Amino acid sequence: MTHANLMNNYFDPNLVYTVEDFRHRFRMRRHVFERLFCDAQQVNSYFRQKRDRAGRPSFSPHQKVTVALRMMTYGSSADSMDETHGMSESTCLDTLEEFCDTIVQVYKDEYLCELNQEDLNWLLRKVEDRGFPGMIRSLDFMHWDWKNCLTGWQ
Prior knowledge:
Elements: H1 2-11, H2 19-26, H3 30-43, H4 61-74, H5 81-85, H6 89-111, H7 117-129, H8 135-139
Helix pairs in contact: 3-6, 4-6
């Protein structure tokens, strides 16, 4: 039932919510979601529809990707997904881990590269133009140990 509601609300031709609602709730355009969805399904069999031991369909790929994205987007806890998506806490955590691993595997070469000096200079210009001079430089010092920092925070 939760799969049917999700499809009816966001993905079927006669959807309940508008394109703007989708972008607001998912924090991305639908074509970006579709790309992530398709790539996750192609690379990781976890995101393909299966049947459970009783022969019933398990959670749909749309449900799994939606739950992972909602947890990341809103910082939602895994146990809060049970109410809206009918997915247990442990399944949500497994889904989030599988999704993150898959996305890193698929996109790491394109998006997760180490910055070179040219990239860093471009970023520094961008953040300075937006009123945050020195923002990137402040990240360089996050590895420092603070002698007076509480032990629990070190």
